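Hey, weird one. I pasted the Large ribosomal subunit protein bL17 sequence into the form twice and got a warning about non-standard characters only the second time. First submission, copied straight from the form history:
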Amino acid sequence: MKHRRKTPKLKRNAAQRKALLTNLAASLIEHGRIRTTLAKAKALRPVAEKLVTLGKRGDLHSRRQAIAYLRQKDVVSKLFGEVAEACADRQGGYCRITKLGPRVSDAAPMAYIEFVDLEVTVGGGDDDDDE
């Protein structure tokens, strides 16, 4: 039965689902915004918001809990540094999901998930306009 099960299965077993959400959360913290399917974004939002809450607490126990979940110390340091101080005055609702159109290949509904208060630089690459 499905009683008290909030996270959708996403057609994966429990270990694969935990690994997927861990990697998506690490990518979201690292990049500030990621593009994924709508179902994965909706499953990721509670995980990411709990991690931001850990980052806002900022104590050693919270840091160890975040390292145990994310398994990447550089991502955890960014979570406790940039993301936590950007969301310091907000009481919840740290993530925003913006729906996009369907994916071209299989028509899966796509979405952006991003942090509300964090500035995201879209694009990338090395632009050398000085020369």
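That's the output from the first submission. The warning seems to come from a hidden character in my clipboard, not from the data itself. The beta strands are 33-37, 95-102, 109-115.
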